[in-house]
């Protein structure tokens, strides 16, 4: 059984590859991190496919190449995403478009390309990565929050549509995860303040996120759900 993971060269992506590679053939779709892609292939035996998922044609070609290599893919993890902290009044049209293109349109493109194979097989699972801010919203991250809220709506609607075909669609909403994305966006003081607001008293790890994703990917009677991975933050 093959698994497609988008954004596999990031911190959470790498943890996802590790979590799935022991049991599955893993195909990673990535955009630019060639060095990291080669490291993943060497360490975990996965195959990496370079594509720009904001382009429907590029996403479709990657999925079809994976299909030719592994046969029908039964698990899709839409992990690719970007973030940005910016006052609402400073968000440019380009910022807005880029945020939605990567976090929402990219997910749509890959899912639409992959799901037809699942429908013909009458089985499969899709897990999408949202965010705690997609559920509750974050000041100075309006465009990010809007995109991640869209992931949740996408998940709930598609779960209903694909259920008769035996396909589950779920979503995880990570809170503060110890990753380069958060370290680059937030200062050490800001991260320390956030940790004080988390009942478990620490940031989550990419590995803990991957564990939850894998559970949902393998669950047979859970669909249309949004699972928070936030240490009790909300």
Molecular structure report:
The chain is globular and about 50 Å long. α1 crosses α9, α3 packs parallel to α4 (93-121) and α4 (93-121) runs parallel beside α6 (142-162). The longest helix has 29 residues, at 93-121. The chain has a seven-stranded parallel sheet, with helices on both faces. The chain has nine helices and seven strands, in the order βαβαβαβαβααβαααβ. The mean pLDDT is 95. Helices cover 52% and strands 17% of the residues. The protein has a single domain (2-229), classed as NAD(P)-binding Rossmann-like Domain (Rossmann fold). By secondary structure, it is an alpha/beta fold. It has helices spanning 11-21, 34-44, 56-70, 93-121, 132-136, 142-162, 180-185, 188-197, 206-218; strands spanning 2-6, 25-30, 47-50, 73-78, 124-129, 167-174, 226-229. α2 links the parallel β2 and β3 (47-50).
